[in-house]
């Protein structure tokens, strides 16, 4: 048997260490926090984390409400998206048909 040394991941999380990131999870939850650490299977450690609340009637709609979570350890298999908060902006969906008046 051979030993694996320094197994790497294809993600470059090191560039986001100690920076605020947005993380989206399976099931629709979203949080922002300061990335403090990660491992080879994409488990993440976030500090000063806040969760964005969703509308109970429409789970695809984010509310302006947040709740403070503090320190969070996110399991890598539940993480769908990691993006930096800085430089991120919301754009309108070009594929949605707007009803004409």
Automatic annotation (TrEMBL):
Q: Where in the cell is it found?
A: Nucleus
Has UniProt tagged this entry with the keyword RNA-binding? Answer: yes
Q: Which InterPro entries match?
A: Lsm7, Lsm7/SmG-like, LSM_dom_sf, Sm, Sm_dom_euk/arc
- Annotated Sm domain ranges read 8-88
> What Gene Ontology cellular component terms go with this record?
catalytic step 2 spliceosome; Lsm1-7-Pat1 complex; spliceosomal tri-snRNP complex; U12-type spliceosomal complex; U2-type prespliceosome; U6 snRNP
One GO MF term on file is: RNA binding
Q: Which UniProt keywords apply?
A: mRNA processing, mRNA splicing, Nucleus, Ribonucleoprotein, RNA-binding, Spliceosome
Q: Name one GO biological process term.
A: nuclear-transcribed mRNA catabolic process
Q: Please give the SMART domains that the UniProt record associates with this protein.
A: Sm
Instruction: Say if the entry is tagged with keyword Ribonucleoprotein.
Output: yes
User: Record's PANTHER family?
Assistant: SMALL NUCLEAR RIBONUCLEOPROTEIN, U6 SNRNA-ASSOCIATED SM-LIKE PROTEIN LSM7
Say which family it is in. Belongs to the snRNP Sm proteins family.
| Name of protein | Sm domain-containing protein
């Amino acid at each position: 048997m051979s030993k694996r040394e320094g197994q790497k991941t294809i993600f470059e999380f090191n560039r986001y260490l100690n920076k605020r990131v947005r993380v989206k999870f399976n099931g629709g939850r979203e949080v922002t926090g300061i990335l403090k650490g990660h491992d080879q299977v994409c488990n993440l450690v976030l500090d000063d984390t806040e969760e964005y609340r969703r509308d109970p009637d429409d789970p695809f709609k984010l509310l302006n409400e947040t709740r403070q979570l503090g320190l969070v350890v996110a399991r890598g298999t539940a993480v769908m998206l990691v993006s930096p908060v800085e430089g991120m902006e919301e754009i309108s969906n070009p594929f949605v048909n707007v009803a004409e008046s």
